[in-house]
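Table S5 (text form). Sequence records supplied for joint modeling of the two-component complex.
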Amino acid sequence: MRSARIFTIALACATLAVAQPALTAEQRRLNLESFEFIWSTIRDQYWDPTFGGVNWTAVRDEFRPRIERAATMPETRSLMGQMLGRLGKSHFAIIPADVYGDLDSHDDAGGTGTAGIDVRVLAGRAIVTSVEENSPASAQGVRPGWEVLSIDGTVLAPRIQKVAELYRNSTMREVYLARSALAKLAGDEGSVARVQFRDGSGRGVTKEIERVRPRGSLAKFGYLPPSYVWITSRRIEGDIGYIAFNLFLDPARLMPAFGGAVHSCTGCAGMIIDLRGNPGGLGIMAMGMAGWFIDKPDQRLGTMYTRQAPVKFIVNPRPPVYSGALAILVDGSSASTSEVFAGGMKDLGRARIFGTRTAGAALPSAIDRLPNGDALQHAMADYISEGGRTLEGMGVVPDVEVKLTREALLAGHDPVLDAAIEWIHARK
Amino acid sequence: MHLRHRLTPAVFLAGLLCSSGGVRAEEPLPKADEILDKFVEVTGGKAAYEKVHNEKSTGTFEFVGKGVKGSMTLYRAEPNKMYMRVDLENIGAIEDGTDGETAWMLSALQGPHIKEGEERALSLRQATLREPLLWRKMYKSAETAGIENVDGAACYKVVLTPNEGKPQTQYYDKKNNLLVKMTVTLVSQMGEIPSETVFSDYKEQNGILSAHKTRSKALGQEFEITIGQIDYNIDMPKDRFDLPNEIKALAKK
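The corresponding structure-token record, covering 681 residues in total, follows.
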């Protein structure tokens, strides 16, 4: 899933290039091969066989001679991007080989070990938004609101600036900004991250934090890389249920745990589902979870349009259904199935959404490496939420926009959660 | 008996229809009822089918190329009772069944669902134990539409129109009259999904020849069912086809 979420940008940097070397004969051959791959992939897999009225064969006839004449890689990429642009849809992009490498964080430490902190980029700075209990970071005294200045000698500010520029017009900006910091924090279990912070009083603090196994259980699904999945639930202020989980995966364990948490709180004044930072997973789980909150049959979260047929994301009521106030918390790192769930529940009028706009990355998409070393990102289906809006490139806009701030975090507050609690109390 | 009965939209969330090259029919085409009756004959004969009152099949289920696998158990009893359970690794159970009246689906992922209309009608057809003998009651028409190649074999193309629901197209090998392919629109609560299923690995068990492997395509996904064992006329638990509690609770609402 991680690899399936790189967004449209790359053309921007392609056009910034100057004094590019001329293409060799071999590069020209590979570029033509790549062009044919792109064109035929769209022909065979684009969900709308009419291509939205675009004559796709004519597009090939127009662009192939231009690709043949292109003198540089940036020019070639620009032409390929223009061809994809004829579809008029987001989530189609040519990703230059060097940019793909940066975003896929192959140059970073990698590994599954975690320092136990979560980070978002707030007002251009990498800020710790949460610290896991009993984690090495917690033991070292790291606190929410601290700014991360550098990790293992890499200063984050230029990295953040570069990614912010690349994604300046994308709803996925927040996702990649957070990743630019989090990728450096990850590493092999047992290794140590040397992290320089600015603490609450503005002083520089350096901590050596051991990376440990992430919380949760290692879940496998098909050939996807195994991922650690966790779910937590608790009561807040006595009569509000709170559920958070990091991925829509491991359904055999997650679905019963989620359902159990809902059923244990049937008399609660409200329920809060925290999807902040949740990048999604299996779309079908969104339908299943919605069933614990919707008692009317034949409701749907939205519709996915594939080449073969439209697929309705139907909700099956799962009695006893929780009928109290429901708040869903989201942020710019809530993507894919998180958006399907939050967007659909909002459209059905069943939940109130708090936080910031989601990533706008709801489509199932794939990234294929091209013969010339670049990559093609392409969506394989369209998804329209029940309210009639596309989520792709737009995201779910919260009913109540609440932003995290360093000041609030330092003061021990979570303004998004606080807003949801306040709304639930106001409804009593 | 025949795997065509074992396909269900409950686990069939995923179809590309492979085109098969047309072959001009220069010979007189046999009538559909001759083809369908001959199928009964070549797979064991009417008497063999009539001896069967219930069955249990076990096998494996796999989403091809996805690394998602599981086990499958299917029970059926006359006239049209069915219970199927697929246990997918790391996903959980998907159950599908009917007591002959109420058709339902229950999954750990999606919860309980009671089928209605065309979706219910499709389930009841799939549950009919002696469907090869009873097709005249279940379909309002059957027509031979031509001859087409399926994987290099010339096949009779038969279009069956059910009393309720959409037509399905079956392909019978001219040489041995075995069913080798079927295309049908799977009607489910998630939509109407075109699908194609290819039947192979015919084996005889208890005097009846049946396909032990099916490969189905829908919504760009492919899955394969491999049957390991079929037992007929077992000591069927009395409550095997009772509605699960979740379905009963839903029915009460």
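Note: The interface with chain B takes residues 219-223, 250-252, 255-256, 282, 284-285, 287-288, 291, 295, 298, 306-314, 316-319, 380 of chain A (CB under 8 Å).
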